[in-house]
């Protein structure tokens, strides 16, 4: 019996079974297991410190209005110290103005930093968070996080969303130094 | 000629008949028939450019008849193939040549009485060679603090880079690539205005083959390039190009032209090393998105919010934001991600990916894939110290040594253990239990082997070591010594007999066994090691194998037996390929009927999606049962 015949019979069996079974039946087309990665997260990330960063900021704020944001850092490390340094783009204001935080890793509790953000002018800003994990085994490791902040007035916006479609015929011309010479190396 | 002979003989015979009658007067003797030869003109000599299609047109006339045939022949110069040799015109393409071309052709026209005429035409191409060197600023990493060392920037050859010649209207008139010294020799037309374009692309056809390009994901994936001045080869025979880092002693300028070429040069290292162990290797095209706007915020990729440097679904993205995290000079980071591209296309990876670090107990598929990435970055550079720079002024960073054996955690779940084993298998240094040196060839040949790629069990340190040992009979004891030194004790592709549970007893055996139509199997996926949102840690999913003896429909039930609120999901795999899945939102059970078309060992993976967001509280256990319907 060829493969097609087997598949046809199986399809018939499944169809008849589905008529008397109210549970979900889902047979998906074959694909690599790795395609079932974590939703919303790119698959292969570069190595970094064992730190998880969570926040409750939706990325939007209204210029000249403060918005409270909770930054939470979790590192289930048995020992060592976790330090966080905040660095805001020019024009993005962070309150309080403390930019260094640290936590001794002797519990499973996360390091929570409560800040308020505002911007004088509309625009896109970043709050960069440098996390450093120093273990007692003496191996510091870093991970850099960033929070994108879109400061704009409420209401409908012309997002002018850029597409990510490849247009390989397009070129970005880089600055380059071209030195022209003759065959003897004399500059022309 | 034949016609003339017949006419002559006929006239002679007729002449002989004239002596019979005495009274008949003889008429005047007709003059011999004269044939006027045809005339032919092969056309004017031509000076052509590039690999043009050249057409030669002859004009032939015959004053007392018609032209009955043409014949073209090439009488000198590099041989070409004409599309027609018996017509008034013919065409051919100018062959590639790095020196001047002078081609001569002769046309012969024949009239209806056999008379012929010939003429010749010359086609010339005056060739020039534009030579030069392409370099870029290579910023090394400091060994003390792992930051970028701007005090020791050096001009480095841009190797394997695509070089194109463009004429005044922008058409490509020639192309080549730079060599290992960054040097190129571009054949162009000597007296034609030509500019040289340097493109951030490495392109090689044949064996081996590759096509790697760097594009800007914040500018519609446009490709990085640079163009020189428009000049003739005769006036500008040597043209060198240099791409600067843009560093001005305190800060970057907006233009960081060296970035794309630094990235490509790192990939070039990998392509060269792998080509040495497999000269026939065919690398699929790879596009790398890099921008000075690429920052560590997850969000809109066209705006540069890529989150981190990563490889996913055939494309690599690299960070580029100054004073934050920028990876164009972080060789090991680039090669780590390139290794994922390699295993994705040329080997096999069952990793589900996600955030990872050395100090974690990882899903065994993730641990192997990430450890392989770390180890390959060391093998390709022959520098076992992985460095990643970041911070203000790119002054800081971290490092780890893939040659070191004292990893934070030892075991099948540790990417540190994996990279230590793999690097020791590669290198020739004898350290610890390392008494074996298989080189890159030993690693590569295993990763692309049939045994490794077609295995019922997931890719892991076990499946790799099993395939490696099958290829290196006689080295089993040395290989086992390395593996045991990292507290990995299981054998075979499924890690049978593993005793290191990583502190989570439910993680063993790594692959449980369930029998079709047999007793149910209890499994307890645990979120104990999973941080919120990260389900790629050890124990978060449970694996069991079962044997399918005949294709058919199978009923699979996963039912909670203990623990808190749960939402189990199931996936069925055959040789790493998903054969079926059921991921309903029904709480505490997952029941489905699936069709399985292949026989042999299958894997069922059970996970509790409640673990992902509530890592500590759930840890439910589930009874799994499989029945056939035939």
Structure description:
- The complex is a heterodimer of chains A (188) and B (630).
- Chain A is mostly beta strands.
- In chain A, 9% of the residues lie in helices and 39% in strands.
- Chain A has 1 helix and 12 strands, in the order αββββββββββββ.
- Chain A is extended.
- Chain A starts with a helix and ends in a 7-residue tail after the last strand.
- The model of chain A is unreliable at 1-31 and 158-168 (pLDDT under 50).
- Chain B has 4 domains: 39-125, Immunoglobulins (Immunoglobulin-like), CATH 2.60.40; 126-329; 332-500, no CATH class; 505-628, Jelly Rolls, CATH 2.60.120.
- Chain B is built from 10 helices and 34 strands.
- In chain B, strands 11, 12, 14, 15, 16, 17, 19, 20 and 21 form a 9-stranded mixed sheet that branches.
- Classes of the chains: A mainly beta (188), B alpha+beta (630).
- β11 (171-173) of chain A pairs parallel with β17 of chain B.
Q: Secondary structure elements and their pairing?
A:
The complex is a heterodimer of chains A (188) and B (630).
Chain A: H1 3-19, E1 44-45, E2 52-55, E3 60-61, E4 67-74, E5 81-88, E6 92-95, E7 100-104, E8 111-119, E9 123-134, E10 141-151, E11 171-173, E12 177-181
Parallel strand pairs in A: 3-10
Antiparallel strand pairs in A: 2-4, 4-8, 5-7, 5-9, 6-8, 9-10
Chain B: H1 2-16, E1 39-41, E2 46-48, E3 53-57, E4 59-61, E5 67-76, E6 89-93, E7 101-111, E8 116-125, E9 127-138, E10 154-157, E11 162-167, E12 172-177, E13 183-189, E14 194-199, E15 201-204, E16 210-216, E17 222-227, E18 238-243, H2 258-277, E19 286-290, E20 310-312, E21 315-318, E22 320-321, E23 325-326, H3 331-345, H4 364-381, E24 385-390, E25 396-401, H5 415-426, H6 439-447, H7 450-453, H8 461-471, H9 476-485, E26 511-513, E27 521-523, E28 541-548, E29 552-562, E30 568-574, E31 577-582, E32 589-596, E33 600-608, H10 610-613, E34 621-628
Parallel strand pairs in B: 2-8, 9-18, 16-19, 19-21, 26-28
Antiparallel strand pairs in B: 1-4, 3-6, 5-7, 7-8, 9-10, 9-13, 11-12, 11-14, 14-17, 15-16, 16-17, 20-21, 22-23, 24-25, 27-34, 28-33, 29-32, 29-34, 30-31, 30-33
């Amino acid at each position: 019996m060829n493969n097609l015949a087997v598949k046809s019979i199986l399809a018939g069996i499944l169809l008849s079974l589905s008529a008397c079974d109210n549970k979900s039946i889902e047979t998906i087309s074959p694909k690599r297991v790795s395609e079932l990665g974590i939703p919303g997260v790119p698959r292969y990330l570069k190595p970094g410190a064992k730190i998880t960063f969570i926040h409750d900021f939706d990325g939007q704020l209204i210029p000249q209005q403060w918005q409270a944001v909770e930054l939470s850092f979790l590192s289930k490390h048995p020992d060592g110290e976790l330090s966080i340094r905040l660095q805001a783009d020019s024009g993005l204001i962070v309150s309080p103005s403390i930019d260094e935080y640290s936590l001794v890793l002797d519990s499973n509790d996360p390091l929570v930093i409560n800040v308020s953000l505002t911007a004088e002018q509309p625009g896109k800003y970043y709050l960069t968070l440098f996390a450093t994990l120093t273990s007692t085994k003496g191996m510091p490791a870093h991970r850099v996080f960033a929070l994108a902040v879109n400061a704009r007035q409420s209401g409908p916006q012309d997002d002018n969303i850029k597409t990510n479609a490849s247009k390989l015929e397009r070129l970005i011309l880089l600055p380059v130094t071209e030195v022209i010479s003759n065959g003897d190396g004399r500059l022309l | 000629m034949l016609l003339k002979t017949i006419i002559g003989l006929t006239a002679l015979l007729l002449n002989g008949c004239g002596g019979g009658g005495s009274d008949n007067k003889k008429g005047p003797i007709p003059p011999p028939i004269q044939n006027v030869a045809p005339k032919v003109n092969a056309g004017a000599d031509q000076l052509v450019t590039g690999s043009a299609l050249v057409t030669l047109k002859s004009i032939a006339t015959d004053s007392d008849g018609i032209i009955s045939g043409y014949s073209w022949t090439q009488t000198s110069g590099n041989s070409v193939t004409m599309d027609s040799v018996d017509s008034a015109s013919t065409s051919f393409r100018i062959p590639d040549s790095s020196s001047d071309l002078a081609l001569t052709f002769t046309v012969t026209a024949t009239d209806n009485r056999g008379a012929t005429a010939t003429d010749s035409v010359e086609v010339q191409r005056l060739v020039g060679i534009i030579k030069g060197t392409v370099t870029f600023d290579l910023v090394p990493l400091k060994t003390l603090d792992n930051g970028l060392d701007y005090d020791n920037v050096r001009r480095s050859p841009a190797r394997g880079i695509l070089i194109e010649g463009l004429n005044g209207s922008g058409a490509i008139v020639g192309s080549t690539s730079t060599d290992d010294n960054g040097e190129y020799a571009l054949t162009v037309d000597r007296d034609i205005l030509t500019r040289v374009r340097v493109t951030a692309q490495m392109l090689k056809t044949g064996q081996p083959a590759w096509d790697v390009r760097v594009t800007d994901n914040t500018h519609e994936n446009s490709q990085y390039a640079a163009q020189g001045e428009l000049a003739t080869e005769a006036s500008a025979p040597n043209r060198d190009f240099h791409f600067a880092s843009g560093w001005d002693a305190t800060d970057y300028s907006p233009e960081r032209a060296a970035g794309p070429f630094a990235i490509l040069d790192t990939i070039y290292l990998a392509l060269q090393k792998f080509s040495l162990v497999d000269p026939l290797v065919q690398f699929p095209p790879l596009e790398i998105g890099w921008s000075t706007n690429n920052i560590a915020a997850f969000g809109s990729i066209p705006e540069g919010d890529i989150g981190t440097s990563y490889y996913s679904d055939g494309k690599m993205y690299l960070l580029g934001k100054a004073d934050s995290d920028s990876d164009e000079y972080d060789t090991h980071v680039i090669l780590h991600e390139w290794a994922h591209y390699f295993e994705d296309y040329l080997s096999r990876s069952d990793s589900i990916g996600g955030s990872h670090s050395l100090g974690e107990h990882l899903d065994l598929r993730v641990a192997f894939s990430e450890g392989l990435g770390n180890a390959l970055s060391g093998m390709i550079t022959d520098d076992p110290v992985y460095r990643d720079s970041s911070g203000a002024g790119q002054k800081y960073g971290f490092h780890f040594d893939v040659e070191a054996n004292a990893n934070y955690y030892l075991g099948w779940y540790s990417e540190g253990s994996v990279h230590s084993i793999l690097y020791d298998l590669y290198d020739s240094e004898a350290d610890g239990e390392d008494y074996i040196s298989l080189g890159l060839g030993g690693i590569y040949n295993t990763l692309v082997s049939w045994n490794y790629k077609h295995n019922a069990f997931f890719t892991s340190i076990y499946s790799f070591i099993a395939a490696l040992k099958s290829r290196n009979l006689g080295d089993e004891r040395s290989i086992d010594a390395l593996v045991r030194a990292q507290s990995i004790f299981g054998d075979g592709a499924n890690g049978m007999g593993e005793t290191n549970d990583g502190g989570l007893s439910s993680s063993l055996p790594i692959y449980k066994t369930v029998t079709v139509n047999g007793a149910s199997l209890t499994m307890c996926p645990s979120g104990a090691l999973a941080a919120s949102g990260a389900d790629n840690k050890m124990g978060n999913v449970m694996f069991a194998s079962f044997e399918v003896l005949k294709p058919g429909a199978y009923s699979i039930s996963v039912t909670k037996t203990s623990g808190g609120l749960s939402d189990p999901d199931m996936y069925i795999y055959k040789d790493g390929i998903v054969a079926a899945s059921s991921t309903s939102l029904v709480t505490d059970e997952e029941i489905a009927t699936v069709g399985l078309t292949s026989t042999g060992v299958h894997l069922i993976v059970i996970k509790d999606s409640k673990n992902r967001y509530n890592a500590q509280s759930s840890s439910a256990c589930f009874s799994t049962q499989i029945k056939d319907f035939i």
